[in-house]
Amino acid sequence: MGCRKNLARLTPAERTAFVNAVLALKAGGKFDVYTTIHARTMDPGGVMVHGMPLFFPWHRQLVLEFERDLQAIDSSVSLPYWDWTVANLNPSATESLIWRADFMGSPGNASPVGPVTGPFAAWGFSRRNFDPFQYPGTGGSIAAAMAQTTYGPFESGIEGPHGAAHVWVGGDMGNIMTSPHDPTFFLLHANVDRIWAEWIHTNQGTPGFQPYAPVSGGMAGQNLNDPMWPWDGSARPVAMPPWNSAPVIVRPADVIDHRALGYFYDTIDPECFPKLKFVDDNKLKFRDDKPKFADDITLKFRDDPTLKFRDDKLKFRDDKLPPADPTLKFRDDKPPPLETVKQIDEKAKAIDDPKGKFADDPLRPQQGPAARPFILSTPHHSMAWAGMAGGGPQAAVAEHEAAIAELEQLLTKMTEAQQLGTLGPAEAAQLEELHAEYQALVSQYQAMVQQLGVATRS
Amino acid sequence: MAKGQPSTGDQEQFSYKGKRVVLSVSAERGTVAIDGQTFAATRSSVGMWSSPGVFNQYQTLSDLAKHIVDYLYLFTPNH
Question: Do the domain assignments include residue A309?
């Protein structure tokens, strides 16, 4: 079990552990077996693992065996991968994270190729004298291959840039017969393996998707369930130790699921994702705590039927107005109707009735000559009073008051017309006569009132 | 005659990514000329074509030629 990380994310300790394990494998003689196996595939009659479908599964098994050998030396080691489409520099871009003294060593120290310095300098392989701040690239070709949905075009689309990366490193890496001499080979092929894993990861939910082809009917040794040399122990073209003595049937079908093989990639597998302290810390009150928001049934917000907010019955603009109150005295209320003359007369009769509802009213006039008379403020009221009084001096006073009032109104109108200049000569003469008549009538009235001893009208 | 390669003694020409490609085959050897720059090619006993400086092996000479065009920068000095 282990996480294959991008080499750019290795810690210095992880780099050192990996290098030490590789050096130990070399010292034990096992490392060179991988070079031999890879070269033997080119033998006449050998298994074809380049330019053929077997490219991905065969190299997956080869790299996995290599990783297991390293883990037998140091169980903490996992194989890092080299994403050759980027520069892999430190954040300040002042040093390479792969071509360095504590990891994969230097480029070739001669042009066009030369030996290297670093942990593997003593191994004797060479590299091209490349610029360690440059890189093979070809990310566009890989992206185009990743967009393929069938295995054949995907495989050939990846094998091209893979070969270009081999040649870019150059020296032993640039030749099929010698490329595993340089341990960079395994980092490069871990990246090839990651690309296949990601392609499967991306497409595995698609109906009819085949992570490998041909299933059957293809060239011998290339089908999904054909055993792969050398793990089957067969002599095609030559038996390889230790698998000839302890053969294991490994078919392409057996290696399609990298997770089942016990390793993961930091790009697609959750096992490799950073273990944040936030998420799994029971003491925290954030995302893994019982939420207090949308799904919390204890909340009193939108789903609470007792709330008085948005879902409650509205009392405002959308609510129905209460029915009109007939007792209201506001703008829509009708003012009380004016009393008619008839009603006033009836009220006057009620006032005069000694047994009526106004019997105890101190202002109610008393019956008989000794009664203290009063004069109402309008001719009608005065006449009504005179009529109720039954004739005699009171009636005469009332008639005078009515006549005086009518005459005052007439005089007022004619005087206004005279002031406006609209009064004719005949009317002007009539005005003089009316004034005289008015003065005479008032004199008579005052004498009459004085004789009766009643209050005068104002 | 296998598809993607001329018969022995013949030449085949085509254009790929703006490059003029000329293939020629003589027995188990061949040449790939790309805009006048010639690359030697050999065919293995299992029929796979390869070329010095090319890591990959291809079933046809034309596929090998296309790979060389794709990664022509690898064949230039100090690439």
Answer: no
A81 near A97, Cβ under 8 Å? Answer: no
CB contact under 8 A, B70 and A179: no
What tokens were used for A182? 């340089």
Q: Which chain B residues are Cβ-neighbours of A163 within 8 angstroms?
A: 54-56, 67, 71
Each residue of A421-439: pLDDT tens digit?
A: 888 888 888 888 888 888 8
Domain interval for residue A146: 2-273
- Maximum Cα–Cα distance across chain A: 165
Residues A261 and A362 in one domain: no
pLDDT digits over A214-261, tens only?
Answer: 999 999 999 999 999 999 988 877 888 778 888 899 999 999 999 999
Q: How far is CA A344 from the centre of its chain?
A: 77
DSSP 3-state assignment of A13?
helix
Output the pTM of the full model: 0.65
Q: Are residues A235 and A349 in the same domain?
A: no
* C-beta atoms of B77 and A166 within 8 A: no
The answer on A369 and A255 residing in a single domain is no
Q: Per the structure, how many domains does chain A have?
A: 2
CB contact under 8 A, B71 and A176: no
CATH number at residue A58: 1.10.1280.10
Residues from chain A that touch B74, judged by Cβ atoms under 8 A, are: 164, 167-168
Residue A299 falls inside a structural domain: no
- Asked if residue A45 and residue A159 are part of one domain, the reply reads yes
Contact assessment for residue A15 and residue A102, using Cβ atoms and an 8 Å cutoff: yes
Distance, in Å, from the CA atom of B75 to the CA atom of B37, rounded to the nearest integer, reads: 10
Distance from the Cα of A148 to chain B's closest Cα (Å) equals 18
Cβ contact A201:A267 at 8 Å:
no
Domain final residue pick, A247, A273, A299: A273
B11 Cα to chain A: minimum distance (Å) = 24
* Assigned domain for A313 exists: no
pLDDT band at A443 (very low <50, low <70, confident <90, very high): confident
Q: Say whether both A269 and A346 belong to one domain.
A: no
Q: How far apart are CA B58 and CA B56, in angstroms?
A: 7
Structure tokens at A427: 């009317």
